[in-house]
Amino acid sequence: MKSDLRILPATPARTPKRAYEGLGYPLRAMLVFAATLALAVIWFMLPGERGVAPALTTAVALFVGVLVGWRTLWLSSARERSAQVLAALGAATAGIPPKLRTCMPLVLVTGDGLPALFDRNDEERFAHVGDGAIWLRVDDPQQLPRLAVALRQWRDGRAPDGVALSVAPALHVGADMLTQKLRVARHCVADAARTLGTSLPGYVAVYHRLTTSPPGLSVPAWYGVSSATRIVDGERFELMVRAAEAETQRLLGDADTSRAATTAIGAARAAALASLVGWTRRVVIGTLTDRKQPATPWELFGAAWIDCGPASGSADPWERDVQRQTCVTRATVGASPLPWPLPQQLIEATPRRYWRSPRRIAGAHALTLLACAAAVASWSAAENNEALLDRIGADLGRYSMIPAAHDNAKRDALHALVVDRDQLDRYARVGVPLRLAFGMYRGAQLLPALDTAIASYAPPPPPPAVVTLDSMSLFDSGRAQLKPGSTRAMVDALEMIKAHPDKRILVAGHTDNVGNPQSNLKLSTARAQAVRDWLIDVSGIAATQFAIQGYGDTRPIASNASDDGRARNRRVEITLVPDTPTTQ
Asked: Where are the transmembrane segments (predicted)?
């Protein structure tokens, strides 16, 4: 298939975006995917305080938003800059599917005589598609970096396969001007390679009339070297010259006199070729590969000399070089008919580059991101489970260390254990949450320990029931005999005692501080004994269930400085005490 493109106007129609939206590396989609994974890990897996999740979410959203915005602007700008190239390529290669587009070699052609190579029927052409390759014209070498980036997008992430430099010595009036153009081309190719992040194989095609072609010869003679590896010495060029000379010797040995003219032309071409190759190596290739220059040396993979080109005379650099070395002035040769042939043979040995679709690369990157997220999630689950076990273990330890006498603290610790047990029980019934999953959950093994600790709690015994009797209503002042009719005040105490036959009864007497303390102590004991005796007689409870105690004025419940306070301190207290079994 062959096709040619016209050069488009300076302001071409905008290229439809959807034609290239699916091409290239989906960086924005990958950023969104990575952000989604990061947020999932932050909200569902990350250990530590949950209060940091909003801050981390904001940071991730801002970071990814800035990158996506920058990428969008960059793509828009690149699309604007490459609109002419992409529109022209789309028009010429509309019938080429993207897969074939990436498989066909694509070569950028810059240098001399580009109109003669690309223009057809007096119309300017931008590209030529044919002979299994795509050839793109670059009139301004300084546009190579921008064009290379556009082509990589157009080829679904694959960079151009090479850069061909067309050199027509007859179009130059001096070697200095040619050298300057070669240095500019070398610098621009180096910039393009640096922009793409890959090397660009270089080719040199020299177009010059070596002889006058015989009538009927439609294809100009072609001599060249093409290699899949970089050419680092001149041995291959010498082999090519010797092959041309051998062909001439073969023709000279041919007895057919009808081919004498062809043989003479071949001999002249071989002689001129040897000189032109030497000049090319010194002037052209030497300038492109000289390591003293600041730009990266040209990576030469092939060179060709085509007996075709503009009219040659004594003014071009090579003709002057021949005249200087041999003192012979070559005859003027007319220009070749247009168009000149593209150096198709040069790219037949183009090095094959390993290339994968950007979507496949993105898929591999997505799997890598997913694996990283899974690794972080597994680590987070392990940390969360360790924190859960440490917390429940600390709750169990705190509960066991609190003595039963501190019931309030014991109840607080018990409440924490109940919350822990309910949490683990809920996990067992409805499933383990994601932040504890990934095969790391070990909470079930703590359920028996929690149940045992909760069941071991024993509430403290209730405080003993106390009935306080006013001594003045029971006894006369200073006496320990019950007054007549005073027993009615003890009816409530008697009912309480009968309601708790399993408890012991402590009867304690108290006085105010009036009088001698020893007398007060004896009086309080005697009054307690009198109340006990009456209770035994009335209730029928064994005397062994009773105990008496006299405290005198040692345990006042009010101030003895007032009559009311002293009256309150004169009392008899009846207390029911739980019977404690004897331990043997």
From this structure: 27-46, 52-74, 361-382
Q: Looking at the structure, tell me whether residues 181 and 225 fall in a common domain.
A: yes
Judge contact between 188 and 139, C-beta under 8 A: no
Residue 145, C-beta contacts closer than 8 angstroms, at least 6 positions apart: 188, 191, 192, 194, 195
What's the pLDDT tens digit per position in 347-363? 887 777 766 777 888 88
Task: Give the torsion sign (CA, 69, 75, 80, 81).
Answer: positive
Tokens of 136: 């793109």
Q: Which of 294-298, 363-367, 429-433, 499-503 has the lowest mean pLDDT?
A: 499-503
Q: Given 435, 455, 475, which residue is the final one in a domain?
A: 455
Look at residues 404, 538, 418 and name the one whose alpha carbon lies nearest to residue 458: 404
Pairing of the two strands 162-167 and 106-111:
parallel
Q: What is the pLDDT of residue 221?
A: 79
Indicate whether 168 belongs to any domain.
yes
Q: Which residues lie below 8 Å from residue 540, measured CB to CB, with a gap of 6+?
A: none
Residues 474 and 444 in one domain: no
Instruction: State the residue range of the domain holding 29.
Output: 1-95
**Contact indicator for 165, 110 with CB cutoff of 8 Å:** yes
Average pLDDT over residues 512-521: 89
Residue 263 maps to a domain:
no
What average pLDDT does range 369-392 have in this prediction? 91
Same domain, 432 and 393: yes
CB 304 within 8 A of CB 223: yes
Q: Are strands 133-138 and 106-111 parallel, antiparallel or unpaired?
A: parallel
Contacts of 308 (CB under 8 A, 6+ apart): 207, 208, 209, 220, 336, 340, 341
Over 60: is that where the pLDDT of 214 sits? no
Whether 189 and 336 share a structural domain = yes
Residues 6+ apart with CB under 8 A from 123: 6
Q: Which of 194, 192, 103, 193 is nearest to 156 (CA)?
A: 103
Inform me whether the pLDDT recorded for 338 exceeds 70: yes
551 domain-assigned: yes
Cα-to-chain-centroid distance, residue 464: 69
One-letter identity of residue 41? V
User: What is the helix (H) or strand (E) element at residue 365, kind and residue range?
Assistant: helix 358-401
* CB-based contact 202:301 (threshold 8 Å): yes
437, 455, 473 - which closes a domain: 455
CB 178 within 8 A of CB 169: yes
Same domain, 304 and 413: no
Strands (E), 425-583: 465-470, 503-510, 546-552, 571-578
The tally of domains found in the chain comes to: 4
On the 0-12 / 13-18 / 19+ scale of CB atoms within 10 A, 279 is: buried
Kindly state whether residue 368 falls inside one of the protein's structural domains.
Answer: no
Of 30, 27, 36, whose CA–CA distance to 70 is shortest?
27
Q: Are 88 and 115 in the same domain?
A: no
